[in-house]
Design goal:
single chain; alpha+beta; 6-stranded antiparallel β-sheet; 6 strands; 20% strand; globular
Length: 177
């Protein structure tokens, strides 16, 4: 290996993310994938919020174990799990792609806010931001941005939990017009 000529060849961020959007998730399958994640996190209550009238967001809020900032950033990484790793029988995730591909198949902006151990962490994949920079740039939200998110107060009141928020609903909204 030391004498082989190698070229680092990371995928183009914009092209891969746009390709992953077209894997073929229906809205129902995408939501089911997120519910599976909530169940794996030990959630007893899972709420799906989709405002009537103008569809400007969809939120899935659970009371599961939540994630620290470090855990959230790891969960937002595409391919965050090795399919060969040992996992519990109740863990339906395998590749570390489900939450991201399911969500981004329906929207252009995925925000995840999570509460654990008294802290609140938030991160966002914004496809237009990635396209602008053509880099794998995850946005970490700070308190003023978190405060403006819909339904975040419910998460603040909880002991732990996670909210997956879809905005820029280009595909989901198109299916419900």
């Amino acid at each position: 290996f030391d004498q082989m000529k190698t070229i680092p060849l990371a995928p183009e961020a914009t092209q891969l993310l746009e390709s992953l959007r077209s894997i073929g998730y229906s809205a129902e399958a995408a939501i089911a994938d997120l519910i599976d994640n909530s169940i794996t996190a030990g959630a007893h209550a899972i709420d799906i919020r989709f405002p009537a009238g103008v569809a400007n967001h969809l939120a899935i809020i659970d009371d599961g174990s939540g994630m620290t900032e470090e855990e959230l950033v790891a969960a937002m990484r595409h391919g965050s799990r090795n399919p060969g790793d040992r996992r519990s029988p109740s863990d339906l995730g395998r590749f570390g792609l489900g939450m991201k591909t399911a969500s981004l198949s329906q929207c252009r902006c995925l925000t995840v806010v999570s509460r654990k151990d008294g802290g609140l962490a938030a991160a966002r994949w914004d496809l237009d931001f990635v396209r602008k920079h053509n880099q794998w740039l995850l946005i970490q939200l700070e308190e003023p941005e978190i405060e403006r998110l819909p339904l975040v107060d419910e998460l603040r009141r909880a002991r732990s939990g996670t909210m997956v928020l879809w905005t820029e609903l280009d595909r989901l909204a198109a299916g419900y017009q």
